[in-house]
Amino acid sequence: MGRLSKRELLTEKKTKSKKKKQTMKKKLFKTRLLSFAAFCGLALAFASCANEDVAQSTTGTETENDKNLTTFVAGDEAKTRTTMDYSTGAFYWEAGDKIYVKDDDGTWQVSNNSPAAKVAFFKFKVPGKFKNHTTYKVYYPGKNGNQDQVTISAAQSQAEPNNTEHFGESGDCGTADASKQSNGSFAFALDHQAAILVFQPYTGNTVLSDCYLTKIEVTSDNDITHTYTLDPTTGELTGTGSGKQIILTTKGSGAYTNGFPLKNTSASVATNGAYMVIKPGTHILKVRYWVKDIVTNVEGAITKTLSAFNYAKNTYYDMTANLDVPNYDGNHYCMWDAKKQYWDGYEWTHKNPLWQPTLNNQSSTFYPQNNTDPRYKNEAVGGSRLDASFFCASLPNLNELVWYTLKGEPHWDDGRLWTTMGHLYKSGIWIKKKAFISGFSSVVGPDGVTDYRTVSSLFLSNPPSHTSLSDSEINQFFFLPTLGYLYDGKLKDLSVEGEYWSSSGNPLYNTDAGLIRFTNNSFDVYYYGRKFGFIGQNLFE
User: Fold this and answer.
1) pTM
2) pLDDT > 60? residue 24
3) Long-range residue pairs from 360-365, CB within 8 A, at least 24 positions apart, any chain
């Protein structure tokens, strides 16, 4: 029978029912809203007659077999190969590939030869007797499988972008009906039984563009990895698996020692295309893209979640994702209520290495040092109360910080990624929004009596929880990153702790002012020295 061209096949797909097309459109649109591209399922291979898959003997009398071995011929048809060319969907046999066939005695036989390198055509030599039938079932269980047993690996690895040499180890598999030819050989075209995800992350974040993709972690609501059986009738994977997570490592050598690059601003298979083999079926997938900044040595995950979708066998799916994280500009460190920020006129964006430090323990001499500098602290004394007038005027006051501390249910998060001053960092704290804190007030503390703007001595503490917030809870919270602090021009504890000024100065002493400070095991509100460079930006709510 004749083969359809790819264009003809795509035209045929377009004739499917309107209802089905509308359902797919809905799923595609919803997926895009989650920053994933359309699930573009392209058939990897299509059914064809056996005599189209191999070069036939011109005489019909010569034999391909010897006394002890039978030849099973995998031809150059796209579906007969075991690594893939993305642009065409074509597969190739790789070094070490073997096939299994049951002989006339019902005994499993494995080919005693295998390709030495990547090929589109190969003659497998199989021991045993194959005289009683004109058709035999061929099994390809992958390189880690055996007979009809296939293991889709939970730990997959790819050394270079747009490279599929790991398919065999990862669990790609297939079956075929091998038909006897006039020369005594058997020809077959492999029908692949796994589904393949083709990840293509990109970013418009200039900081992330200097980072590397180190691994991709996929978690499903049901099994996508386990040991399965190739059904002798349908060829499909059967059996109940228990593995719900697959991790694909994207590292190699040379240019890919640190991982795959993220320099592309749109999807690019050539730049960082990463392939994962999964069990077909309807899955709800959570995908975590792990990225690393090799300067700060910070590594973390950006998560994308997809709704239920049917991933068909013998099909690959484009999984594009726009990776982004919050960015903090680095221009909001300040001495308490100074007229200008700590590095005004000496910002890191000027790229002067002697000016604003951008990495932990870097220092600069261009910091404010006396009250003739508008970047220097507010030295006012309030008497009964002192409110900020300049850089800190828009910040929450001490009453509000006490509410956040004691009633804000702080949750530490050591995995949330963000960027600042050209590099990737992680960690911070989640605090409940005031709309969800019963009784929240800016004029009085949680005791209903104390106005903390008028007290001169204060230290309250509430250690954070380390329990992760659920998807339904997190909308009630806001996040503060661990942006560290400055002292005498030195940047300290970036990605370790956070210090955020309030709009309240100590009413009796011009040396300190109110703030919150947090680490992985502390969350405190108190007075501290005004000359420190803490965050004077209202990131609350």
Assistant:
1) 0.82
2) no
3) 360/484, 360/491, 360/492, 360/493, 360/494, 360/495, 361/490, 361/491, 361/492, 362/490, 362/491, 363/488, 363/489, 363/490, 363/491, 364/489, 365/489
